Amino acid sequence: MENIFNKKLEDLQTYFLSIGQKKYKALQIYDWLYKKRVFAFAKMTNLKKDLILKLEEDFNIDLIEIVKVQKDKDTSKYLFKLSDNNYIESVVMFHDYGVSVCVSSQVGCNMGCAFCESGRLKKVRDLQTYEMVEQILLIEEDLKQRISSVVIMGIGEPFDNYDNVLNFIKIINHDKGIAIGARHITISTCGIIPKIQKLMTEPLQVNLAISLHAPNNELRSKLMKINKVYDIEALFKTLKEYIKKTNRRITIEYVTLKGVNDSKACALELAGLLKGMNAYVNLIPYNETNNIGFKKSDKKTILAFYDTLKKNKINVTIRREFGSNIDAACGQLRSKEVER
Ligand code: SAH
């Protein structure tokens, strides 16, 4: 029996046709689930009894469970328990322009980036579509507030779970679903080239963010294992194709690690890489974790890095520091729960 939140509107339309019902029933179900937020077939009052029974036979509406919420001034962190007792987390950030949510795409992660807490525990499994959709639904229910943007930057590598992540995006983006505009949805990847190429062919205006974190192969391979498979030259060749094909600006994420990748030489090398590209750099202050030795760069060093990029005409922003008091770095809350 499948969870109903796995289903795109078109999938439900196909389903209803296959059981000899009219296509528009799919819209009725979507309306109950996503507009009225009614999570039981028996309460969907415009459906006939026998159809309710049939739906209950074919689908469940099981919900993942919020087990902990840690609140800070401008961030909240949700720990969810899945039906197989695995844990994932989402981080909510309150901006003056709205509320954004950072969702997880896998239980753990196999990318093994040296500085990242999520990768320390390895991937247990991919999330199914419904487990991502429900992160959004349950947070909206809890906050009694609409979410305005979604970043797929929580635990996991979204491109290692491509089909479910794309399904998730199509559901939350759909007018009749949660209706979050594609331009308000960002996928962040460590750089899995074949999936970047695949994303180019999708008729979806979502944003792409690349976790670069180093301007040369020697350093990047030390920090990110994926660089040994898809190196910087190959990655940038693909990114240039992506920009040309989609006409969209990409984001380059760069976590500044003290004494590792935050020198002026690194900034100059990064500027060289990005010269003339429709891209902007988001400098991310590192969230230190107890289990990993990297330290965050000093404010002064980050500002100098920023200045060097600016002077070289590279668009750059420094990410506001969110939630370091509440273990908001990817995977920190989950690993505490798992290792207790
Ligand atoms: N796997 C995807 C998405 C999840 S990680 C990716 O690599 O992009 C989301 C972002 O958080 C990545 O840029 C990642 O490198 C960064 N990150 C991981 N641990 C961090 C930490 N402790 N502090 C700050 N950023 C971190």
Topology overview:
Elements: E1 2-3, H1 9-18, H2 25-35, H3 49-58, E2 59-60, E3 65-71, E4 75-81, E5 87-95, E6 98-102, E7 106-107, H4 117-120, E8 125-126, H5 129-143, E9 149-152, H6 162-173, E10 185-189, H7 193-200, E11 207-211, H8 217-223, H9 232-246, E12 250-256, H10 264-274, E13 279-285, H11 299-311, E14 315-318, H12 332-338
Parallel strand pairs: 1-2, 6-9, 9-10, 10-11, 11-12, 12-13, 13-14
Antiparallel strand pairs: 3-4, 4-5, 5-6, 7-8
Helix pairs in contact: 1-2, 5-6, 7-9, 10-11
Brief summary:
By secondary structure, the protein is an alpha/beta fold. It is built from 12 helices and 14 strands.
Overview of this structure, please?
- With 340 residues, the protein is α/β, with parallel strands linked by helices.
- The protein folds into two domains: 2-60, Orthogonal Bundle (DNA polymerase, domain 1), CATH 1.10.150.530; 65-339, Aldolase class I (TIM Barrel, Alpha-Beta Barrel).
- 36% of the residues lie in helices and 20% in strands.
- It has twelve helices and 14 strands.
- The strands form three sheets. A ten-stranded mixed sheet has the order 3-4-5-6-9-10-11-12-13-14. A two-stranded parallel ribbon has the order 1-2.
- β3 (65-71) and β4 (75-81) form a beta hairpin.
- α7 packs parallel to α9.
- The longest helix is centred in the middle third of the chain and has 15 residues, at 129-143.
- It is elongated, with a radius of gyration of 21 Å.
- The structure holds S-adenosyl-L-homocysteine.
- S-adenosyl-L-homocysteine binds at residues 111, 113, 115-117, 153, 157, 188-190, 211, 253, 255, 284, 286-287, 289, 329-330.
